[in-house]
Structures are given as structure tokens and as C-alpha cells.
Amino acid sequence: MRSDEASSGLVGLFHEHEEEGGVVVGRTVAVEGLLSGFSAWSERHTYAAYVPGRELARVAPRLPTGRLSVRDRAELTTSEATFAAWHDCQFDTRLPFLARSKLGGAHPITLTHHTISYKELLHDGLLRLLLAAPRPYDSIVCTSHAARRALAACIDAVAEALRQSCGAQIAYQGRYDVVPLAVDCDRFRPTDRAVARARFGIPPDRFVLLWVGRLSLIDKADLLPLVDALGVLRERHPERELLLVCAGRERPTERFGGAIADYARELGLAECVRIMDHSEFGSVAELLYGAADVFVSPIDNIQESFGLTPIEAMACGVPQIVSDWDGYRESVVHGETGFLLPTRWARCADDLSGAAWFRDSPFDHLALAQSVAVDMNALVEGVSRLIREPGLTGA
After folding, report:
1. What gap in Å lies between CA 188 and CA 374, rounded to an integer?
2. What is the pLDDT of residues 233-261, one digit of tens each?
């Protein structure tokens, strides 16, 4: 054991770096931000992030040194370290309990989940969690109260299904703690709008609506109604030049960004819509927020359990107009930092609730999302207020 580990307590972390099409996925961004925070701000512990050996060379340069080290998971087979706690960053319900069993000790285990809408987490992962017999001092760290309620209901449902099918009486004995995600305010902060717009070639006189996130109809948000809303806003405010920027990565098999551009062209709004690939802004996302007049996110998908982008916009001083949905409603303060859009859910829960237990098709997400309606009239009204009254919100 290293001397610093003995004196301050070593916390073991399980992490997997995930990318799609060469772009780091949102949960990995959140996790690596958390790990950087541990390194920068912790005064009581040192941290060891264990990653698969194949990822070691890729992950280590992304994280700061100091109180955090990045190690190959294979080292655990011969480790003699004494751990103060284990934390799994991606809600893997196997590894931390296996580590506690093999390495000994009574240290607590915490797990952070980022979404629970996929089959692997919705049933299989929760079943493994119950069978691992968490202790009363173990905790699932939820990023929002909405996610906590949903996750607790899912765990109870899995436990009840186990009781009915096998007669097993297994209940979750651990804790639920709500700890929202955070952003680095040294990076995400208000910036000079003229400089930001010059960086992306955005005319200084445009009123800019900004979406940042994965461009996916299936498991993020249907943005075509946002283009419709843009058309209404253009008719209502002919005195303003409007620009909707949809920035993010898209799956090659889906190409939803192209569909948005085609739809805008059909409506005669081609010059008012810009699709921006992640490669154009990823390393300077804070500047892109700084170029916007308002951040918009009409999320309609249960995949979004927290939502980091509204927090990034808020940190950059940009008002947010987002769905009154999942974790969004706990971050955005209606009338102060922005506006919440009413959402309505069709009465189809009984038809849809059982399907995800047996299938893992992405179209399950799409079917469920298409049963959700976001009030785009409210979005139009919110944007109109910001056009008429710049500085209305205290974002």
C-alpha cells in the first residue's frame, strides 16, 4: 500500500470511457468531470480509478493527477490496498460488490446511475443489484429526485417479480441519495458574445436559439416541432433575424441532423437553421453557449434523467427554455433562470410498460417518446418574451 493511501484513505473507482463515433458520450463527460473534481477538491481521500487495460492509455491523459491515479483493473487481482470505499461511476452492479467480496472489508459501496431506460439497467442490472445484497450503508447516488423515484419504483418492481416467480423475498436494503451533477464553472462562465459569435461565424445581429446534445429522434428529443416553432417565431417577429443552432453528434445510422435540415428547407427556413457537428464545437462548448441568446431543449424522452446541458447554459449566463420533465424541472427555475414547458403523456402506460422488459430495441424509446407532448406554444411565448425583454431572466 502506498503511504498516502494509508494516511488518508483510498477510494476505489470503477470507470469505463465510452465513445460513439469518436465522440465522448454524455455520461462519460459527467463522470470524468466528477473524477477531476475529486482530484481538485478532495482533502480527505486519495482516489484510484480502475479502468479496463485497453482504455488506460486513452483515459489517463484526460484526467488530472494529484489525488487521483488511473490504474489497470488487472492490478486488483494482486492488490493489497485497504479501501475506504468503492464507487462505480456507471452503475455497474457487479464490479464493486465483487471487489468487496474478493478484497475483504466492510467498506461502503456507492453507485451513480445516469439513465435507467435501457433493458440492461431496467431489469438485468437491478436484478444483479438485489442478488448482491447491498448493505444499509451502501448507496445509489441519484442525480435528481425524479430519477430517485423512478429507480426506486423499478427496483421494487424487480423485487416483486422475483417474489412472484421464485418465491424469493429480496428487498433493497441500501440507501438512495440525491446528488445532482455539476459543471466546471471555471470553464463554463459568461463570455463576450461578439467574440463567441465570431468564433463560429454567427452574425452579430441574429437572435440565436441553441440546442446542444445528441441529435437523435430515438432516444433524445424530437426536434422537428422546434423547427415549426421557429417558423411561428419568424412570422411573429419579422423585425428580428432568427437562427436555430442544433449542435451535437448524430449516429451514422440515424442522421437526424440531416432530417432536421431537410425539414427546415421544406418550410422555407433553411437559412434560419444550422446543424453543427460536435467536431466544430466540442473543445470550446462554452463559447458556443456564449454565442446564444437562449438555450432550448424540448426533451420528450425518459432517457434524460438529469440533463447536464441546461446547467452548462445556466453557468454561461444563458436563459433556458426546457421541458418540465425528469431532472430538468429540478434545475431550471421557472421565471428566474428560464421557463419550463408543460409536458403531457398519453394514456398508454399499460401498453408500453411491459415491452422494455423483453425487448431492447431502440424503437421502444421512440414509441414511448412519441406518446409525450411538449407544449411548443409555451416555447414560442417564452422566446418571444426574451426577444421583447432582453435580460428578463436572471440566468
Report:
1. 28
2. 999 999 999 999 999 988 888 899 999 99
